[in-house]
Design goal:
Its main location: membrane. By secondary structure, the protein is mainly alpha-helical. 81% of the residues lie in helices and 0% in strands. The protein has one domain. It starts with a helix and ends with a helix.
């Protein structure tokens, strides 16, 4: 519980953490930001890392001269593209094996037809999914993994991977650069970050619930 509270406190005061880190370790902050963005987008077990707020706050520190804007953007772009690529490759390697275990217990629960449907979906709509997922916490961690598991075409994935990374990094870093040090925004930065995360996540959750309710309603209707 103490660890969880410490993590929540860190996320809510990430600006203070970064400021203190820059004062003590200087340019090592670039390594930390690179590692966090790579881990959040590249390792499916770390969807809780605060990527959005880090990009925004990093841009704000660039505006004060404590970090270099061009270098930060370049490193974060590399981290975002490399992270998604790693996640895609992990999904590509693990996905087929999961569905071909030949273990009777698992065979009952794994639906190869569903995997094929997912593949078809990603071939048709995967580009939009990869790009939009960049702006939705948790979803951006799982989207490239699912794309790999469903065998989305490599060239198609990489095209939208790069486009999504460019939009995500440039938008959030530049927003932080131009607006992150406005007194009102700086004072209520934590609230703004939480509202932004909620605005991205809530529609996704509501959409999933709506689809589930419709499916249950259709299954329950008399035939």
């Amino acid at each position: 519980m103490d660890t969880l509270l410490h993590f929540v406190n860190l996320v809510l005061h990430i600006d203070k953490f970064l400021g203190d880190f820059i004062q003590v370790y200087g340019t090592w902050v670039y390594v930390v930001l690179f590692a966090i963005v790579f881990a959040e987008t590249g390792l499916v077990v770390l969807p809780f890392l605060p990527g959005d707020s880090l990009l925004f706050i990093g841009g704000a520190f660039c505006a004060t001269g404590q970090m270099h804007l061009g270098l930060l953007i370049l490193l974060l772009l590399i981290a975002a593209v490399a992270g998604n690529t790693t996640n895609y490759l992990i999904g590509r390697a693990i996905g087929p094996r999961v569905f071909n275990t030949h273990i009777p217990v698992l065979e009952r629960f794994l639906d190869r037809a569903a995997l094929q449907k997912t593949h078809n979906f990603y071939e048709k709509h995967g580009g939009k999914t990869i790009v939009l997922a960049r702006f939705i916490p948790v979803v951006r961690t799982f989207a490239p993994f699912v794309a790999g598991a469903s065998a989305m075409t490599w060239s198609r994935f990489q095209m939208f991977n790069v486009v999504g990374a460019l939009l995500w990094v440039l938008l959030l870093v530049l927003l932080g650069y131009f607006f992150g040090n406005i007194p009102f925004i700086r004072q209520y930065l934590n609230v703004i970050v939480l509202v932004g995360i909620g605005a991205a996540v809530v529609p996704v959750v509501l959409g999933a619930l709506w689809k589930m309710l419709r499916k249950n309603g259709a299954n329950a209707s008399p035939r």
